[in-house]
Protein backbone atom coordinates (compact mmCIF):
# COMPACT_ATOMS: atom_id res chain seq x y z
CA UNK A 1 0.00 0.00 0.00
CA UNK A 2 2.82 2.37 0.90
CA UNK A 3 4.59 1.65 -2.40
CA UNK A 4 1.39 2.36 -4.31
CA UNK A 5 1.02 5.71 -2.58
CA UNK A 6 4.62 6.64 -3.38
CA UNK A 7 4.07 5.72 -7.06
CA UNK A 8 0.93 7.88 -7.11
CA UNK A 9 2.97 10.75 -5.65
CA UNK A 10 5.55 10.48 -8.43
CA UNK A 11 2.83 10.37 -11.08
CA UNK A 12 1.10 13.43 -9.60
CA UNK A 13 4.33 15.42 -9.53
CA UNK A 14 5.10 14.45 -13.15
CA UNK A 15 1.64 15.53 -14.26
CA UNK A 16 1.83 18.81 -12.37
CA UNK A 17 5.20 19.58 -13.96
CA UNK A 18 3.86 19.58 -17.56
CA UNK A 19 0.63 21.47 -16.87
CA UNK A 20 0.61 25.03 -18.27
CA UNK A 21 -2.28 27.40 -17.85
CA UNK A 22 -1.43 29.31 -21.05
CA UNK A 23 0.58 27.65 -23.86
CA UNK A 24 0.47 30.82 -25.98
CA UNK A 25 2.56 33.70 -24.77
CA UNK A 26 1.21 36.46 -27.04
CA UNK A 27 -1.43 39.05 -26.30
CA UNK A 28 -3.29 38.34 -29.56
CA UNK A 29 -3.94 34.76 -28.41
CA UNK A 30 -4.93 35.46 -24.81
CA UNK A 31 -6.92 38.66 -25.27
CA UNK A 32 -10.69 38.56 -25.17
CA UNK A 33 -12.62 38.62 -28.43
CA UNK A 34 -13.58 42.24 -27.85
CA UNK A 35 -9.95 43.26 -27.26
CA UNK A 36 -8.70 41.41 -30.32
CA UNK A 37 -11.36 42.71 -32.71
CA UNK A 38 -11.08 46.22 -31.30
CA UNK A 39 -7.36 46.11 -32.07
CA UNK A 40 -8.13 45.09 -35.67
CA UNK A 41 -10.64 47.94 -36.02
CA UNK A 42 -8.11 50.42 -34.60
CA UNK A 43 -5.53 49.09 -37.05
CA UNK A 44 -7.78 49.83 -40.02
CA UNK A 45 -8.64 53.25 -38.58
CA UNK A 46 -4.93 54.13 -38.65
CA UNK A 47 -4.69 52.94 -42.26
CA UNK A 48 -7.74 55.00 -43.23
CA UNK A 49 -6.17 58.04 -41.59
CA UNK A 50 -3.03 57.58 -43.69
CA UNK A 51 -5.10 57.34 -46.86
CA UNK A 52 -6.94 60.57 -46.02
CA UNK A 53 -3.66 62.38 -45.26
CA UNK A 54 -2.14 61.13 -48.52
CA UNK A 55 -5.09 62.32 -50.60
CA UNK A 56 -5.33 65.80 -49.09
CA UNK A 57 -1.60 66.43 -48.59
CA UNK A 58 0.15 68.88 -50.93
CA UNK A 59 1.38 67.27 -54.17
CA UNK A 60 5.03 66.83 -55.06
CA UNK A 61 4.43 68.61 -58.37
CA UNK A 62 1.87 71.45 -58.42
CA UNK A 63 -0.32 72.17 -61.45
CA UNK A 64 -2.04 75.47 -62.17
CA UNK A 65 -4.16 75.98 -65.30
CA UNK A 66 -4.95 79.25 -67.07
CA UNK A 67 -7.65 79.30 -69.77
CA UNK A 68 -7.85 81.97 -72.52
CA UNK A 69 -10.72 82.38 -74.97
CA UNK A 70 -10.07 82.14 -78.69
CA UNK A 71 -10.96 85.33 -80.55
CA UNK A 72 -9.89 84.12 -84.02
CA UNK A 73 -12.34 81.81 -85.84
CA UNK A 74 -11.35 82.44 -89.46
CA UNK A 75 -9.52 79.24 -90.38
CA UNK A 76 -5.73 79.58 -90.46
CA UNK A 77 -4.89 82.33 -88.00
CA UNK A 78 -2.11 83.62 -85.79
CA UNK A 79 -2.81 84.58 -82.19
CA UNK A 80 -0.57 86.02 -79.47
CA UNK A 81 -1.22 85.06 -75.87
CA UNK A 82 0.47 86.60 -72.81
CA UNK A 83 0.71 84.41 -69.73
CA UNK A 84 2.32 85.10 -66.34
CA UNK A 85 3.08 83.25 -63.09
CA UNK A 86 4.31 85.02 -59.94
CA UNK A 87 5.37 84.23 -56.35
CA UNK A 88 7.91 81.58 -57.32
CA UNK A 89 10.70 80.60 -54.94
CA UNK A 90 13.98 78.75 -55.39
CA UNK A 91 12.63 75.73 -53.47
CA UNK A 92 10.06 75.23 -56.28
CA UNK A 93 13.11 74.01 -58.27
CA UNK A 94 11.63 74.38 -61.78
CA UNK A 95 8.77 75.94 -63.71
CA UNK A 96 7.21 74.72 -66.91
CA UNK A 97 4.18 75.26 -69.13
CA UNK A 98 2.24 72.80 -71.26
CA UNK A 99 -0.42 73.95 -73.73
CA UNK A 100 -3.58 72.31 -75.05
CA UNK A 101 -6.78 73.29 -76.86
CA UNK A 102 -10.49 73.06 -76.09
CA UNK A 103 -12.70 72.44 -79.10
CA UNK A 104 -16.26 73.68 -79.33
CA UNK A 105 -18.00 70.34 -79.98
CA UNK A 106 -17.08 67.17 -78.08
CA UNK A 107 -19.17 64.98 -80.42
CA UNK A 108 -16.72 65.42 -83.28
CA UNK A 109 -14.63 62.36 -84.22
CA UNK A 110 -11.01 61.99 -83.15
CA UNK A 111 -8.43 63.66 -85.36
CA UNK A 112 -4.86 65.00 -85.39
CA UNK A 113 -4.29 68.72 -85.43
CA UNK A 114 -1.10 70.49 -86.62
CA UNK A 115 0.03 73.56 -84.71
CA UNK A 116 3.12 75.81 -84.77
CA UNK A 117 4.25 77.50 -81.55
CA UNK A 118 6.92 80.11 -80.80
CA UNK A 119 7.62 81.64 -77.39
CA UNK A 120 9.48 84.57 -75.87
CA UNK A 121 10.01 84.35 -72.12
CA UNK A 122 11.22 86.86 -69.55
CA UNK A 123 12.35 85.67 -66.09
CA UNK A 124 11.93 88.47 -63.56
CA UNK A 125 13.07 89.10 -60.03
CA UNK A 126 10.98 91.86 -58.43
CA UNK A 127 10.02 93.21 -61.89
CA UNK A 128 13.66 93.26 -63.07
CA UNK A 129 14.54 90.96 -65.95
CA UNK A 130 17.14 88.42 -64.80
CA UNK A 131 17.09 86.22 -67.90
CA UNK A 132 15.11 85.66 -71.11
CA UNK A 133 14.60 83.03 -73.79
CA UNK A 134 13.50 83.33 -77.41
CA UNK A 135 12.36 79.90 -78.49
CA UNK A 136 12.28 79.13 -82.20
CA UNK A 137 9.10 78.05 -83.91
CA UNK A 138 8.27 74.40 -83.32
CA UNK A 139 5.60 72.32 -85.01
CA UNK A 140 3.52 69.78 -83.10
CA UNK A 141 0.72 67.37 -83.90
CA UNK A 142 -1.88 67.41 -81.17
CA UNK A 143 -4.66 64.85 -80.92
CA UNK A 144 -8.33 65.04 -80.00
CA UNK A 145 -9.93 61.83 -78.76
CA UNK A 146 -13.48 61.03 -79.77
CA UNK A 147 -16.08 62.57 -77.45
CA UNK A 148 -13.41 64.69 -75.77
CA UNK A 149 -13.15 68.47 -75.95
CA UNK A 150 -9.58 68.69 -74.57
CA UNK A 151 -6.62 67.90 -76.81
CA UNK A 152 -3.31 66.31 -75.97
CA UNK A 153 -0.69 68.72 -74.62
CA UNK A 154 2.42 70.21 -76.17
CA UNK A 155 5.44 71.74 -74.36
CA UNK A 156 5.78 75.52 -74.25
CA UNK A 157 8.67 76.17 -71.85
CA UNK A 158 10.68 74.52 -69.11
CA UNK A 159 13.35 76.20 -66.95
CA UNK A 160 15.08 75.65 -63.60
CA UNK A 161 14.33 78.36 -61.05
CA UNK A 162 17.43 80.37 -60.24
CA UNK A 163 17.03 83.77 -58.62
CA UNK A 164 13.75 84.78 -60.24
CA UNK A 165 10.25 84.89 -58.78
CA UNK A 166 7.98 85.43 -61.79
CA UNK A 167 7.73 84.41 -65.43
CA UNK A 168 6.21 86.31 -68.35
CA UNK A 169 5.72 84.53 -71.66
CA UNK A 170 4.35 85.67 -75.03
CA UNK A 171 3.15 82.66 -76.99
CA UNK A 172 2.44 82.86 -80.73
CA UNK A 173 0.24 80.11 -82.18
CA UNK A 174 -0.25 79.43 -85.90
CA UNK A 175 -3.04 76.93 -86.64
CA UNK A 176 -6.50 76.42 -88.05
CA UNK A 177 -8.50 77.86 -85.17
CA UNK A 178 -11.97 77.64 -86.69
CA UNK A 179 -13.02 74.82 -84.36
CA UNK A 180 -11.00 75.89 -81.31
CA UNK A 181 -12.95 77.44 -78.43
CA UNK A 182 -10.29 78.05 -75.74
CA UNK A 183 -6.56 77.74 -75.08
CA UNK A 184 -5.42 75.95 -71.93
CA UNK A 185 -1.96 76.53 -70.43
CA UNK A 186 -0.94 74.44 -67.44
CA UNK A 187 1.90 75.68 -65.22
CA UNK A 188 3.90 73.02 -63.39
CA UNK A 189 6.43 73.60 -60.61
CA UNK A 190 7.95 71.64 -57.76
CA UNK A 191 6.34 71.66 -54.32
CA UNK A 192 8.67 70.60 -51.49
CA UNK A 193 5.83 70.61 -48.95
CA UNK A 194 4.55 67.27 -50.22
CA UNK A 195 7.81 65.39 -49.59
CA UNK A 196 8.23 67.09 -46.19
CA UNK A 197 4.68 66.03 -45.22
CA UNK A 198 5.46 62.43 -46.11
CA UNK A 199 8.64 62.43 -44.01
CA UNK A 200 6.85 64.05 -41.04
CA UNK A 201 4.18 61.33 -41.16
CA UNK A 202 6.90 58.68 -41.19
CA UNK A 203 8.62 60.40 -38.26
CA UNK A 204 5.39 60.43 -36.21
CA UNK A 205 4.72 56.77 -36.96
CA UNK A 206 8.24 55.86 -35.85
CA UNK A 207 7.32 57.25 -32.41
CA UNK A 208 4.25 55.01 -32.31
CA UNK A 209 6.40 51.99 -33.11
CA UNK A 210 8.89 53.09 -30.45
CA UNK A 211 6.11 53.32 -27.82
CA UNK A 212 4.83 49.81 -28.56
CA UNK A 213 8.40 48.51 -28.70
CA UNK A 214 9.17 49.85 -25.21
CA UNK A 215 6.02 48.14 -23.85
CA UNK A 216 7.10 44.96 -25.62
CA UNK A 217 10.59 45.08 -24.07
CA UNK A 218 9.16 45.81 -20.61
CA UNK A 219 7.24 42.51 -20.56
CA UNK A 220 9.66 40.36 -22.53
CA UNK A 221 10.90 37.02 -21.27
CA UNK A 222 13.21 34.93 -23.41
CA UNK A 223 12.36 31.60 -21.76
CA UNK A 224 9.92 30.82 -24.60
CA UNK A 225 9.53 31.88 -28.26
CA UNK A 226 12.96 33.47 -28.17
CA UNK A 227 13.44 33.66 -31.95
CA UNK A 228 10.02 35.27 -32.54
CA UNK A 229 10.60 37.88 -29.84
CA UNK A 230 14.07 38.76 -31.13
CA UNK A 231 12.59 39.10 -34.63
CA UNK A 232 9.95 41.51 -33.30
CA UNK A 233 12.64 43.61 -31.64
CA UNK A 234 14.72 43.74 -34.81
CA UNK A 235 11.88 44.76 -37.13
CA UNK A 236 10.67 47.26 -34.51
CA UNK A 237 14.00 49.07 -34.29
CA UNK A 238 14.34 49.05 -38.08
CA UNK A 239 10.95 50.81 -38.25
CA UNK A 240 11.95 53.35 -35.59
CA UNK A 241 15.09 54.26 -37.54
CA UNK A 242 13.45 54.09 -41.00
CA UNK A 243 13.37 57.89 -41.34
CA UNK A 244 16.29 60.29 -41.21
CA UNK A 245 15.26 63.46 -39.32
CA UNK A 246 18.03 65.40 -41.07
CA UNK A 247 16.28 64.76 -44.40
CA UNK A 248 13.30 66.75 -43.09
CA UNK A 249 15.47 69.78 -42.33
CA UNK A 250 17.81 69.42 -45.31
CA UNK A 251 15.76 67.79 -48.09
CA UNK A 252 18.32 68.61 -50.80
CA UNK A 253 21.29 67.13 -48.91
CA UNK A 254 22.64 64.19 -50.92
CA UNK A 255 24.03 62.43 -47.83
CA UNK A 256 20.71 62.82 -46.00
CA UNK A 257 18.90 61.52 -49.07
CA UNK A 258 21.16 58.46 -49.33
CA UNK A 259 20.83 57.57 -45.65
CA UNK A 260 17.06 58.13 -45.74
CA UNK A 261 16.67 55.81 -48.72
CA UNK A 262 19.01 53.22 -47.17
CA UNK A 263 17.25 53.22 -43.78
CA UNK A 264 13.84 52.91 -45.41
CA UNK A 265 14.98 49.98 -47.59
CA UNK A 266 16.46 48.18 -44.57
CA UNK A 267 13.13 48.50 -42.77
CA UNK A 268 11.04 47.26 -45.73
CA UNK A 269 13.37 44.30 -46.25
CA UNK A 270 13.35 43.48 -42.51
CA UNK A 271 9.56 43.67 -42.36
CA UNK A 272 9.07 41.37 -45.34
CA UNK A 273 11.65 38.92 -44.05
CA UNK A 274 9.90 38.90 -40.66
CA UNK A 275 6.44 38.36 -42.18
CA UNK A 276 7.63 35.60 -44.49
CA UNK A 277 9.38 33.67 -41.71
CA UNK A 278 6.50 34.08 -39.24
CA UNK A 279 3.99 32.64 -41.71
CA UNK A 280 6.32 29.72 -42.40
CA UNK A 281 6.81 29.02 -38.67
CA UNK A 282 3.05 28.90 -38.17
CA UNK A 283 2.71 26.61 -41.18
CA UNK A 284 5.34 24.18 -39.89
CA UNK A 285 4.48 24.69 -36.18
CA UNK A 286 8.16 25.22 -35.33
CA UNK A 287 9.64 27.70 -32.81
CA UNK A 288 12.38 28.83 -35.20
CA UNK A 289 13.69 28.07 -38.70
CA UNK A 290 16.74 25.99 -39.44
CA UNK A 291 20.05 27.76 -39.92
CA UNK A 292 20.30 26.75 -43.57
CA UNK A 293 16.76 27.93 -44.35
CA UNK A 294 17.27 31.21 -42.51
CA UNK A 295 20.56 31.89 -44.34
CA UNK A 296 18.93 31.27 -47.73
CA UNK A 297 15.93 33.52 -47.00
CA UNK A 298 18.17 36.30 -45.66
CA UNK A 299 20.31 36.10 -48.82
CA UNK A 300 17.30 36.41 -51.13
CA UNK A 301 15.84 39.34 -49.20
CA UNK A 302 19.25 41.03 -49.16
CA UNK A 303 19.20 41.01 -52.96
CA UNK A 304 15.73 42.56 -52.83
CA UNK A 305 16.98 45.20 -50.36
CA UNK A 306 19.78 46.15 -52.77
CA UNK A 307 17.29 46.59 -55.62
CA UNK A 308 15.00 48.63 -53.36
CA UNK A 309 17.87 50.88 -52.22
CA UNK A 310 18.85 51.73 -55.80
CA UNK A 311 15.27 52.31 -56.95
CA UNK A 312 14.42 54.33 -53.85
CA UNK A 313 17.47 56.54 -54.22
CA UNK A 314 16.73 57.12 -57.92
CA UNK A 315 13.15 58.17 -57.11
CA UNK A 316 14.20 60.42 -54.21
CA UNK A 317 16.89 61.93 -56.43
CA UNK A 318 14.27 62.60 -59.09
CA UNK A 319 11.96 64.20 -56.53
CA UNK A 320 14.50 66.33 -54.71
CA UNK A 321 17.16 67.35 -57.22
CA UNK A 322 16.21 66.95 -60.85
CA UNK A 323 14.18 69.61 -62.64
CA UNK A 324 11.61 67.44 -64.31
CA UNK A 325 8.17 65.92 -63.95
CA UNK A 326 7.82 62.65 -62.04
CA UNK A 327 5.56 60.88 -64.54
CA UNK A 328 8.24 58.49 -65.70
CA UNK A 329 9.31 54.95 -64.83
CA UNK A 330 13.02 54.62 -64.08
CA UNK A 331 15.02 51.54 -65.12
CA UNK A 332 15.71 50.59 -61.50
CA UNK A 333 11.98 50.86 -60.76
CA UNK A 334 11.20 48.39 -63.55
CA UNK A 335 13.48 45.85 -61.86
CA UNK A 336 11.85 46.63 -58.50
CA UNK A 337 8.40 46.05 -60.01
CA UNK A 338 9.45 42.52 -61.01
CA UNK A 339 10.91 41.83 -57.55
CA UNK A 340 7.78 43.17 -55.86
CA UNK A 341 5.54 40.99 -58.01
CA UNK A 342 7.56 37.88 -57.14
CA UNK A 343 7.39 38.71 -53.42
CA UNK A 344 3.64 39.37 -53.49
CA UNK A 345 2.95 36.04 -55.19
CA UNK A 346 5.30 34.14 -52.85
CA UNK A 347 3.95 35.58 -49.59
CA UNK A 348 0.33 35.11 -50.74
CA UNK A 349 0.95 31.45 -51.59
CA UNK A 350 2.75 30.94 -48.26
CA UNK A 351 -0.19 32.53 -46.44
CA UNK A 352 -2.56 30.11 -48.16
CA UNK A 353 -0.52 27.08 -47.12
CA UNK A 354 -0.18 28.42 -43.58
CA UNK A 355 -3.99 28.33 -43.29
CA UNK A 356 -4.22 24.96 -45.02
CA UNK A 357 -1.50 23.14 -43.07
CA UNK A 358 -1.80 24.69 -39.61
CA UNK A 359 -3.00 22.41 -36.82
CA UNK A 360 -5.08 25.10 -35.15
CA UNK A 361 -2.26 26.59 -33.08
CA UNK A 362 -1.63 30.37 -33.16
CA UNK A 363 -5.03 30.89 -34.79
CA UNK A 364 -5.40 34.60 -34.00
CA UNK A 365 -1.77 35.31 -34.80
CA UNK A 366 -2.28 33.73 -38.22
CA UNK A 367 -5.46 35.76 -38.77
CA UNK A 368 -3.74 39.06 -38.01
CA UNK A 369 -0.61 38.22 -40.01
CA UNK A 370 -2.90 37.32 -42.92
CA UNK A 371 -4.56 40.72 -42.63
CA UNK A 372 -1.13 42.35 -42.59
CA UNK A 373 -0.15 40.31 -45.65
CA UNK A 374 -3.20 41.51 -47.55
CA UNK A 375 -2.70 45.13 -46.51
CA UNK A 376 1.00 45.29 -47.40
CA UNK A 377 0.56 43.37 -50.67
CA UNK A 378 -2.14 45.87 -51.66
CA UNK A 379 0.16 48.78 -50.73
CA UNK A 380 2.99 47.29 -52.78
CA UNK A 381 0.90 46.64 -55.89
CA UNK A 382 -0.78 50.05 -55.70
CA UNK A 383 2.40 52.06 -55.03
CA UNK A 384 4.96 50.24 -57.18
CA UNK A 385 2.92 48.74 -60.03
CA UNK A 386 -0.47 50.45 -60.37
CA UNK A 387 1.00 53.94 -60.00
CA UNK A 388 3.49 53.25 -62.81
CA UNK A 389 0.58 52.49 -65.13
CA UNK A 390 -1.54 55.50 -64.12
CA UNK A 391 1.32 57.98 -63.91
CA UNK A 392 -0.74 61.00 -62.89
CA UNK A 393 -0.59 60.02 -59.20
CA UNK A 394 3.22 59.98 -59.33
CA UNK A 395 3.08 63.76 -58.98
CA UNK A 396 1.49 63.28 -55.53
CA UNK A 397 2.70 61.69 -52.29
CA UNK A 398 -0.13 59.11 -52.41
CA UNK A 399 1.91 56.10 -53.66
CA UNK A 400 4.96 56.81 -51.48
CA UNK A 401 3.03 57.63 -48.31
CA UNK A 402 0.61 54.70 -48.55
CA UNK A 403 3.43 52.23 -49.13
CA UNK A 404 5.54 53.40 -46.19
CA UNK A 405 2.74 54.17 -43.71
CA UNK A 406 0.98 50.83 -44.28
CA UNK A 407 4.19 48.93 -43.49
CA UNK A 408 5.01 51.10 -40.47
CA UNK A 409 1.50 50.82 -39.02
CA UNK A 410 1.56 47.06 -39.56
CA UNK A 411 4.83 46.86 -37.64
CA UNK A 412 3.42 48.84 -34.72
CA UNK A 413 0.38 46.58 -34.36
CA UNK A 414 2.40 43.39 -34.83
CA UNK A 415 4.56 44.39 -31.88
CA UNK A 416 1.47 45.36 -29.88
CA UNK A 417 -0.41 42.11 -30.49
CA UNK A 418 2.65 39.88 -30.05
CA UNK A 419 3.75 41.31 -26.73
CA UNK A 420 3.78 39.04 -23.69
CA UNK A 421 0.40 38.83 -21.98
CA UNK A 422 1.22 36.93 -18.76
CA UNK A 423 4.16 36.28 -16.49
CA UNK A 424 6.13 33.10 -17.08
CA UNK A 425 4.97 30.16 -15.02
CA UNK A 426 6.73 29.50 -11.76
CA UNK A 427 8.52 26.30 -11.01
CA UNK A 428 6.38 23.55 -9.58
CA UNK A 429 8.22 23.71 -6.26
CA UNK A 430 6.99 27.28 -5.73
CA UNK A 431 3.35 26.30 -6.14
CA UNK A 432 1.57 25.21 -2.92
CA UNK A 433 -0.24 21.85 -3.05
CA UNK A 434 -3.32 20.85 -1.10
CA UNK A 435 -2.13 17.25 -0.92
CA UNK A 436 1.10 16.45 0.95
CA UNK A 437 1.82 12.83 0.04
CA UNK A 438 4.72 12.44 2.48
CA UNK A 439 2.58 13.56 5.39
CA UNK A 440 -0.16 11.11 4.48
CA UNK A 441 2.33 8.27 4.17
CA UNK A 442 3.89 9.18 7.52
CA UNK A 443 0.49 9.20 9.23
CA UNK A 444 -0.28 5.83 7.68
CA UNK A 445 2.87 4.28 9.16
CA UNK A 446 1.86 5.37 12.69
CA UNK A 447 -1.27 3.23 12.60
CA UNK A 448 -1.20 -0.08 14.39
CA UNK A 449 -1.43 -3.33 12.51
CA UNK A 450 -5.21 -3.77 13.09
CA UNK A 451 -5.94 -0.24 11.89
CA UNK A 452 -3.74 -0.81 8.86
CA UNK A 453 -5.67 -3.97 7.97
CA UNK A 454 -8.95 -2.08 8.45
CA UNK A 455 -7.75 0.71 6.19
CA UNK A 456 -6.74 -1.80 3.54
Explain how this protein is built.
It comes from Tritrichomonas foetus. This is Transmembrane protein. The protein is of the alpha+beta class. It folds into 2 domains: 27-59 and 193-418, Rhopdopsin 7-helix transmembrane proteins (Up-down Bundle), CATH 1.20.1070; 62-190, Jelly Rolls (Sandwich). The chain is built from 13 helices and 8 strands. The strands form 2 sheets. It has a 4-stranded antiparallel β-sheet, with no helix packed on it. A 4-stranded antiparallel β-sheet has the order 2-7-4-5, with no helix packed on it. The protein starts with a helix and ends with a helix.
Give me the secondary-structure topology.
Elements: H1 2-18, H2 27-30, H3 33-56, E1 61-69, E2 76-85, E3 94-103, E4 111-125, E5 128-144, E6 154-160, E7 166-176, E8 180-190, H4 192-218, H5 226-240, H6 245-249, H7 254-284, H8 291-320, H9 331-357, H10 363-389, H11 398-417, H12 437-445, H13 449-455
First-residue to last-residue Cα separation: 8 Å
Supply the helix-strand structural class.
alpha+beta
- The CATH topology name of the largest domain reads Rhopdopsin 7-helix transmembrane proteins
Number of H/I helices? 13
List keywords for this structure.
Rhopdopsin 7-helix transmembrane proteins, alpha+beta, TMEM181, 8 strands, Transmembrane protein, Jelly Rolls, four-stranded antiparallel β-sheet, 456 residues, elongated
In short:
With 456 residues, the protein is an alpha+beta fold. It has 13 helices and eight strands. Helix content is 53%, strand content 20%.
